[in-house]
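Case study.
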Amino acid sequence: MKNIDVCLTPDLLHLHKDTLENSIVVVADVFRATSCMVTAFAHGVDCIIPVATIEECRQWQERGYYGAAERNAKMVEGFELNNSPFSYMDERLRGAKIAMTTTNGTLAITRSRNAVKVLVGSFLNLEAVARYLRSQSYDVLVLCAGWKGRPNLEDTLFAGALIERLKEEYSMMEDSAIMAWRMYNQGKNNLPHFLANSSHIRRLQRLGIHKDITYCLQHDLFDVVPVLRGNTLVCIEV
Amino acid sequence: MKNIDVCLTPDLLHLHKDTLENSIVVVADVFRATSCMVTAFAHGVDCIIPVATIEECRQWQERGYYGAAERNAKMVEGFELNNSPFSYMDERLRGAKIAMTTTNGTLAITRSRNAVKVLVGSFLNLEAVARYLRSQSYDVLVLCAGWKGRPNLEDTLFAGALIERLKEEYSMMEDSAIMAWRMYNQGKNNLPHFLANSSHIRRLQRLGIHKDITYCLQHDLFDVVPVLRGNTLVCIEV
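After joint prediction, the assembly is written out as follows.
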């Protein structure tokens, strides 16, 4: 039986060093980086390069890429795209190449490079990711992007949601996976309510981004699975 | 209002560096180090020195201390005491000095030294710890000892239980605290059942330690609060 495990924050990724090379990593930064990426691919974007720094993002921009840079939940000046999924629902972006840097999500992706494969997960493409994983023979590690090294509720809930979809075919041996799964089952009937007091919701609400929150918590809108190829995310339809 | 936060494993303690100096840390290694410590003090032990290595433990033993050394949930040969709370219910130990090293718990204690105070928590002395904290003006950080760097269910549940007792007087701002609190409220009516699939329960059950598990999950047996003074744990009665 394949195994599914959860890493609650990139700051604990060192504990999974030995298993990473035999696992597919699913990176989740639900609010909002990975939800943006999934939305972008669903709207025809050609590829996304996740980069660690604003400087790198600028360099890709100079080579003709659209630039998306977010820090502390706000758009960095001088870039075309922000970290709202709605800014990726744009006909202009069909076939576009994007360079993206965010506070947590893009770093989590770049740090997972030693895995067999790195996928991008969100509630929006939950079933697509689950279906793709079922077709593979590898163990799964869900890497929650968290917030500046700390675990967060929304990414943990995504991990639990994915486990819920895979639980017939995968075993969960470790407590982080059990916790995520239990948490999701506690909250799944009303995720917005369950998340109401979370630290990032409070952060986003101060910025007036209710619409993004509601959007990002929708399940199974898109059948796209972004996968890292070299340093670039491309889209597999499943 | 005072704040209560949770660090799910010592491997995330670096994220709390700035707050540690203004916080009281409560270290929990429910299965079984901190439950042993609480039991030992409740049975009249004079002091416990938590040490990081087996070698250090042996050195204290040579100076007349009782030695307690556990690795991977098993007693290390050549020491008097193991990591079962029942081995501390012993008249011989009244007034005794103990040196203790365990896989996770003692390390968590020694790594918390920069805090205002370091307390030892377990379900056995839950209310005593809560009462002591209420009398203090500092923020609280619950440090879960986890298992070799990984978060675990039982210590997270203890963190949630302590929050449940303190929630009128403390705010919880961070998601780890919210998760622990939600988890405890989900499981509190039947903790043994809730923990049945946890990784450490499976580990302990292989060793046939059902009795220890049931014992360690009892709430409020003892009114003792072990506190670190220098390098030594001593007991405050509250």
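Observations recorded in class. The two ends of chain A are 23 Å apart (CA to CA). Residues 2-237 of chain A form a domain with the putative 2-phosphosulfolactate phosphatase fold (CATH 3.90.1560.10). We will return to this complex in the next lecture.
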